[in-house]
Write a structure and sequence with these properties.
The complex is a heterodimer. Chain A is an all-alpha fold. Helices cover 69% and strands 0% of the residues of chain A. The N terminus of chain A is likely disordered. Chain B contains twelve helices and two strands; from the N terminus they run H-E-E-H-H-H-H-H-H-H-H-H-H-H. The chains are: A mainly alpha, B mainly alpha. Chain B: It comes from Catenuloplanes nepalensis.
């Protein structure tokens, strides 16, 4: 920050630029401080957490809270449930969304436009406004307290279908024609020719799906009623403030829940921002 | 697989799940709202009884009021702040990429964890907020302050997402418009007011609609931040519905009726926004 010779425009710092930096740095602090504070505090003992004023740094960085939370409580089970649901639901989302997008993008059939409109319409019907009736359906199908109940219903994301369809519309029809002339069946054409070409939007959808499912709360909260079916967010919400689980363990497990998304974020940040910018919002 | 049947088979799995878990429940919700049940198994016909009961219930109006307060503050602050932040992130500054990344980070975190951490930071006794301020502010004990905290945490969570959408819109504006305005001697403020803002209209509309829908459905981070307290001051509509449906005393029909009202409100507001935009465009 000491040299102001950025590439492109070489200008001395003006009042406006200093003001802009000040605002951006202040905002960055507001974002980062709570996260850093939580990570630091996740190493503190119960006594250190209760101190007034709180100690800035923990006495030691021994991962006691992490190991003890996993050993004394069932956090290993909740973590496993979260991983299973996230991986399975993401895989299912990718498969059924790609198939649906292909059907809608590359075929002319009766009812195609209606189906596409219905898909867009479901964006307007979030779970929150049909909570009770969706729960009824899940209960009738025996999906309550089953991980399948957390995997299947959220898998058909309208956003994913929309994103993939937009991309496929840009792929030349000649590819499909050529494959058919070569004698490949419809499904083989789709799997061998189209799917490999859709790697960029599939990567974006995979990232988003992992983040959505990993952080899901309201649906798992009503479906996972038995403790051994809890996902990590449900467990954290249920134990927070109940004094069943000491707060230092809750903090440690909260940090664990942040690790995958922060890793994904650091590695794939470009894809994510491009994905949001390019979801056809213009 | 033959060519006429193929597309139907391709769309089938996805449409089946939509049908079973979204479209059918959306229709069935209206039916459930006309019945009442205290256990979710036996239903008695209630007609419009649930709706009359809601309209006469103080709890329902409290939740409705809290939802409107939260959602309106959320939409206005989100849209204004997102435009401001997007302009900053679009400016040619060093470390722009890093700032963009940091601003977007909260969007990825679990709302449950976000609420939990902020709730602990705003703890009156030894939370980080009061420690840094050297004050004894009853953040989550006073109803109005708690609502302010909930709005702040909502912004903290979502602002990066909306700022990124606006940023995409900014980058879609043809720079020639600005060049022309510069030649005409327009000041920076005039260029923003008469060139950037009008051209951003479609993008800001998207942000207004998305933030409105998010604002009316806020639930998860509030659940761990305040639990809807103090004394129901931050209990919004989705939490009200959830409590009626899944916490005793269970009132299924009442919850479903609340859902129908929430859905109609959202649908109506979205339609109004779109029509209003058409009128101006």
């Amino acid at each position: 920050m000491t040299t102001w010779s950025s590439t492109g425009d070489r200008r001395p710092p003006s009042i406006a630029r200093i003001a802009m930096y000040t605002v951006l740095i202040a905002l960055s602090l507001i974002v980062l401080v709570p996260i850093v504070w939580a990570v630091l505090s996740s190493f503190k003992t119960q006594a250190e957490l209760a101190a007034r004023p709180p100690t800035p740094l923990p006495g030691s960085f021994a991962p006691t809270n992490y190991t003890e939370a996993l050993r004394t409580f069932d956090f290993g089970v909740y973590l496993r449930n979260s991983v299973i649901v996230t991986v399975a639901a993401t895989a299912l989302t990718l498969v059924i969304n790609t198939m649906a997008a292909y059907g809608l993008a590359k075929y002319n059939f009766r009812g195609r436009n209606l189906l596409f409109l219905v898909t867009l319409g479901t964006i307007m019907i979030p779970l929150q406004v049909i909570l009770i009736s969706v729960y009824e359906v899940a209960a009738d199908l025996g999906l309550v307290n089953s991980l399948w109940g957390l995997i299947i219903p959220p898998a058909a994301t309208p956003t994913g279908v929309f994103l993939l369809r937009q991309y496929m519309l840009g792929l030349p029809d000649e590819l499909i024609e050529a494959s058919r002339i070569d004698g490949a069946g419809e499904f083989r054409t789709f799997a061998r020719i189209i799917v490999p070409l859709c790697a960029p939007p599939l990567a974006v959808l995979a990232i988003f799906s992992v983040i959505w499912r990993w952080n899901d709360f309201l649906w798992p909260l009503i479906i996972s009623q038995d403790q051994d079916r809890y996902t990590l967010p449900v467990a954290l919400a249920q134990f927070d403030g109940q004094l069943v689980v000491p707060f230092n363990y809750i903090l440690a497990m909260s940090v664990v829940s942040m690790i995958p998304v922060i890793v994904i974020f650091l590695v794939l940040q470009r894809h994510i921002t491009r994905g949001i910018a390019g979801t056809g919002l213009r | 697989m033959n060519i006429t049947l193929a597309p139907y088979l391709f769309v089938l799995p996805n449409m089946l799940i939509f049908g079973i878990f979204t479209i059918w429940p959306a229709i069935n919700n209206v039916t459930i709202s006309m019945y009442d049940s205290t256990n979710g198994r036996t239903f008695t016909y209630a007609g419009t009884g649930n709706y009359t009961e809601l309209v006469n219930s103080a709890d329902f109006w409290a939740a409705a009021r809290a939802t409107v307060i939260f959602a309106s503050c959320f939409v206005v602050l989100c849209t204004a702040a997102a435009v401001g932040l997007a302009l900053l992130l679009d400016a040619r500054l060093r470390g722009r990429g890093v700032f963009r990344a940091i601003v977007f980070l909260p969007v990825l975190l679990s709302p449950v964890v976000v609420g939990l951490i902020w709730g602990w930071i705003f703890d009156r006794r030894n939370g980080l907020a009061n420690t840094l301020l050297g004050a004894d502010i009853p953040w989550l004990v006073d109803g109005r302050l708690a609502m302010a905290v909930v709005i702040f945490v909502g912004l903290w969570t979502h602002l990066g997402f909306y700022a990124l959408i606006i940023l995409a819109g900014l980058q879609g504006i043809d720079p020639n418009h600005h060049a022309a305005a510069m030649i005409d001697g327009a000041s920076a403020w005039q260029r923003f007011r008469y060139v950037t803002l009008p051209l951003l209209r479609p993008t800001t509309l998207v942000v207004i609609i998305l933030s409105m829908i998010a604002g009316f459905q806020a639930f998860d981070f509030i659940w761990t931040l305040t639990g809807g307290g103090p004394v129901g001051a931050t209990t919004l509509m989705v939490q009200y519905i959830y409590q009626n449906a899944f916490q005793s005393p269970i009132r299924y029909g009442l919850a479903a009726a609340g859902s129908v009202i929430l859905f109609c409100t959202l649908f109506g507001l979205t339609l109004l926004n779109v029509l209003n935009d058409r009128r101006h465009a």
